[in-house]
Design a protein that fits this description.
Radius of gyration of chain A: 21 Å
CATH architecture of the largest domain in chain B: 3-Layer(aba) Sandwich
Helix content of chain B: 25-40%
Number of strands of chain A: 25
Shape of chain A: globular
Largest interface: A-B, 85 and 56 residues
Structural class of chain B: alpha/beta
Number of helices of chain B: 10
Number of strands of chain B: 14
Largest sheet of chain A: 6 strands, mixed
Oligomer: heterodimer
Structural class of chain A: alpha/beta
Radius of gyration of chain B: 28 Å
Distance between the termini of chain A: 39 Å
Strand order of the largest sheet of chain B: 2-3-1-4-5-6
């Protein structure tokens, strides 16, 4: 399957009377975006208000509590549309051509749903840890209707963010991209013919599926109801996988991460040179032992069926999913498929504790995104988008995290994307 | 002001002699001797070896207690800002002496210590207790070892926090420290995978630790007389979380009284846990802390009694060391209260 990505570099975002992309500037009329976002039953029923703001790299701005981050994209050629099964109708995506508004993102924020939402600082020490301090962010501050249940609220926020990103992505449909890149993987026979002798490599992509704020959607299907299955890597670039706003902010894979999956990107860099990048195997991280066993069995079975020589396994979340991670490692290693795992660590604030909840001597090759328990001080910012009301109770915070001067003492896990387990960042630990 | 350093070396590096002179007793010399001069050169006056202690390797091995006492007395008198031993390279007894003498100075006198040796030197068994620079396996490695030890030593003397082991050049000591790599994680993973496929050398970023396994306790012969307590890492707390147990990485646990509660209610209780969907636990907290079922068993005489207190924390993102500390403390309270069995619920 072959996909062309056309990157439109966004250099600035401005509020305006119109909505357009001109000369690298994204002009946003919040009322028009809001109108489109509200054309959805859940959003209408459960969201009392949506307000827009803009946060740019280097500004003294703190965004919290952050739920999801989404990159605006639009499908311009080929079957389907972005976010299939959710925003567009169900159709296999990942071929043809898609335009990307690169350098900007939609960020959903506002009143808390659970405990897992995070912080994005656009400057200062916190900015070094989140990739979203480098994007031009169109922030949506949402407010639920009084009495809205958490599951309904989460769904409404998710749809609101996706709809806004879809609307903004559409503005890039007729814009000539600054750069076009092509990504292609082959069928089994074709791959063997075209890339003879190259090791066959797959990407075992673990999706967080533990429940509210711990869910992921694939073509609109709640991934806790799937068995392990196959995806063309390019399908993820069209939004086949969406974040259900999951786990601690630091190691949740936002929708932005899925669209720009770094493992997919880095495997494509080596594809045809040192490896034959065959496909992605997606699997889930359910809470029941039977599900863990079934899903890891299936993932390993598919890897064997495809005659893979090696897989990279990426985790999402920590603790309970460490068990899935180790099962995925052990079952593949035992059938002779070499593995590299990407995880992060909870080694305690002093770094002296055991980092993972499960381990195996077969996990000989591990990449770490850093210790999420590390304590960080975030100095006050001139402006807060959203609210600081929940800083003490979201994961990574503690009673007294928020200081009277607006600074925050908290663990790194409070920062959106800080210890990402797809290997999105340079942060690590030894 | 220059930082004061005391340096420990063996008979060989003091130019007294080799194996035939390994019996010499500890001796105190003014200023730097042998490798100490290489440190001084690196420090350019910022720090200086003020005293050198020389001790024969056989003497240390055969008179460890006396040797340590003598070294400690001299170091105490010299009041240094830093104590350095070695480097010992692959000399086994020298490495053993360096590591143990440094550990004694650290624990007895509270002075920062540093040593250096080859990773397979038996002295390196103490690497989690004494900071060590990994050196080559022979004294030919001095040219690389001296600057590395001098740099790290100066950092210790200044009281600066350590960077990650691979950045500051010490042997991994079980303390995980964050730092920024040159390449992002996914790129490092792909490189590691290609090396692994080709059977080339690679270094894992997280070596697998040894797991702490706990033996199950003995079975209780007669449950109908047993006092049973409920404990949980599922974060069940009184409504409003009065003790502010964190939603992740808990710093403490709670002790709460359930006298008079036949079952937990949504009005009285909730979860503080940030790692799972709280909706169902909040609607019926017995799902996580099954007070309702235990009360029923109490009535039916299946258990003797449900203990009137329960202990609770949030397991989410909480360090094993913290969990261990909490349990060690409240297990004593349970024992004191005559509890024979605990049902620990996780989430």
């Amino acid at each position: 399957m072959k996909l062309e990505l056309g990157f439109i570099e966004i250099k600035d975002v401005q509020f305006s009377n119109e909505c357009a992309v001109k000369d690298g500037i994204l002009y946003v009329n919040p009322d028009q975006v809001k109108e489109f976002v509200y054309e959805n039953d859940d959003v209408r029923q459960y969201l009392k208000s949506i307000n827009f703001d803009i946060a740019k790299p280097g500004e003294s701005v703190r965004i919290t509590p952050v739920k999801d981050v989404i990159e605006p994209r639009v499908k311009v050629e080929g079957p389907g549309g972005v976010f299939p099964g959710v925003i567009s109708k169900v159709d296999t995506v990942g071929s043809g051509r898609t335009h990307v508004l690169r350098g900007c993102a939609v960020v959903t924020a506002g009143k808390i749903v659970g405990f897992q939402e995070g912080i994005i600082d656009m400057t200062g020490p916190g900015a070094d840890y989140t990739p979203f301090s480098k994007t031009l962010n169109v922030v949506m501050i949402v407010e639920p209707v009084e009495g809205t249940k958490q599951h309904d609220y989460e769904r409404a926020v998710r749809f609101a963010g996706l709809r806004a990103a879809t609307f903004l992505g559409e503005l890039g449909r007729n814009v000539t991209p600054d750069e076009v890149k092509t990504f292609e993987t082959y069928g089994i026979k074709e791959g063997l013919e075209k890339l003879p002798g190259l090791p066959r490599v797959g990407y075992l992509h673990m999706l967080q599926t533990q429940g509210l704020l711990h869910d992921t959607y694939v073509y609109g299907v709640d991934a806790k109801k799937i068995v392990a299955t196959l995806l063309n890597p390019t399908e993820t670039m069209d939004g086949a996988i969406l974040s259900g706003n999951c786990v601690s902010a630091c190691d949740k894979n936002t929708t932005y991460h899925h669209l720009n999956n770094p493992v997919v990107a880095e495997l494509f860099e080596e594809h045809g040179k040192s490896i034959n990048y065959v496909c992605n195997i997606i699997t889930n991280e359910n809470v029941y032992l039977a599900d863990k066993q079934r899903s890891s069995d299936w993932a390993a079975k598919l890897a064997k069926l495809l005659d893979l020589d090696a897989v990279i396994v990426s985790e999402e979340g920590f603790g309970n999913p460490d068990a899935d991670l180790i099962m995925n490692c052990v079952k593949n290693e035992k059938q002779g498929i070499k593995t590299v795992l990407i995880t992060d660590e909870y080694a305690g604030q002093d770094g002296k504790s055991q980092s993972l909840a499960d381990v195996s001597p077969l996990a000989t090759a591990v990449v770490t995104g850093g210790n999420a328990n590390m304590v960080i001080n975030l100095p006050p910012m001139d402006k807060v988008i959203g609210t600081l009301d929940y800083v003490d109770i979201i994961a990574g915070g503690h009673a007294g995290s928020l200081q009277p001067d607006g600074s925050i003492d908290a663990e790194l896990q409070i920062i959106t994307g800080a210890t990402n387990e797809m290997g999105f960042n340079r942060l690590s630990a030894r | 002001m220059s930082f004061r350093v005391v340096h420990y070396i063996n008979q060989f590096f003091a130019n007294i002699g080799g194996e035939e002179m390994a019996h010499v007793a500890p001796e105190l010399r003014e200023g730097a001797v042998g490798p100490g001069m290489a440190f001084n050169q690196q420090w350019k006056g910022e720090a200086e070896v003020v005293k050198t202690i020389v001790c024969g390797d056989s003497y240390f091995a055969e008179h460890e207690k006396e040797a340590k006492e003598q070294v400690l007395a001299w170091v105490k008198e010299a009041k240094p800002d830093l104590f350095i031993a070695g480097p010992a390279f692959n000399a086994g007894r020298y490495g053993y002496a360096c590591a143990n003498v440094a550990l004694a100075v650290k624990t007895e006198l509270g002075i920062p210590v540093l040593t250096g040796m080859y990773v397979e030197n038996p002295g390196a068994d103490l690497k989690d207790k004494v900071l060590m620079v990994a050196t080559a396996n022979s004294a030919a490695g001095m040219r690389k070892a001296a600057p590395a030890m001098a740099k790290l030593g100066l950092k210790l003397a200044k009281g600066e926090p350590l960077a990650a082991s691979c950045v500051d050049g010490y042997m991994p000591n079980g303390v995980r420290v964050n730092f920024f790599e040159k390449e992002r994680g996914a790129k490092r993973a792909v490189k590691m995978l290609i090396a692994k496929i080709k059977d080339e050398a690679f270094v894992t970023e997280f070596p697998m630790p040894n797991f702490d396994r706990v033996e199950p306790g003995k079975a209780i012969p007669d449950m109908s007389k047993a006092v049973v307590a409920l404990c949980t890492s599922g974060g069940i707390v009184p409504k409003g979380n009065p003790d502010h147990i964190e939603s992740s990485s808990a710093s403490h646990y709670g002790e709460y009284d359930i006298t008079g509660w036949d079952a937990l209610t949504a009005e009285g209780w909730q979860t503080a846990h940030g790692g799972y969907d709280p909706v169902y636990a909040n609607a019926d907290p017995n799902r996580v802390l099954p007070v309702d079922v235990l009360r029923q068993m109490e009535k039916e005489g299946k258990i003797g009694k449900l203990h009137n207190k329960f202990y609770t924390t949030v397991g989410n993102g909480t360090a094993v060391a913290s969990s261990k500390k909490f349990a060690e403390e409240y297990a004593q309270k349970l024992l004191k209260d005559g509890v024979q069995a605990v049902i620990m619920t996780s989430t």
